[in-house]
Amino acid sequence: MELCDRPVLELNSLLKKGEITFFDITESILKRIESVEQKTNAYITLLEEKIFKKAEELDKKVNRKTKFPVLTGIPIAVKDNICTIRPVWATCG
Questions:
Q1: CA 14 to CA 7: how far, in whole Å?
Q2: Sign of the alpha-carbon dihedral angle for 73, 82, 32, 51
Q3: How many domains is the chain built from?
Q4: pLDDT (tens digit per residue) in 19-63
Q5: Domain span holding position 84
Q6: Residue 51 exposure: Cα atoms within 13 Å on the Cβ side
Q7: How far apart are CA 81 and CA 52, in angstroms?
Q8: Helix and strand tally (H, E) in the chain?
Q9: What percent of the chain has pLDDT over 70?
Q10: How far is CA 71 from CA 3, 35, 58, 84, in A?
Q11: Does pTM top 0.85 for this prediction?
């Protein structure tokens, strides 16, 4: 089973055991998006470089032996009715 198909709690457990990395999760999810995006056309903005950079930072920063929030390092998609990048001509909120 691919990492992108696993439940968040299982991913969190694997992360804490050091069996996977935040980068591994990110890579799996982005590969899935790449494989279906042409058919689904689900994303307007995909910040791959930023996502990979953050995953690498978390892999260096997070001590696996200490508690960290369950959703730490789990990439999410944000519906396009929420501002993710603020254009010059628009304001969010």
A1: 11
A2: negative
A3: 1
A4: 999 999 999 999 999 999 999 888 888 889 999 999 999 998 887
A5: 1-93
A6: 17
A7: 24
A8: 3, 0
A9: 83
A10: 14, 24, 12, 19
A11: no
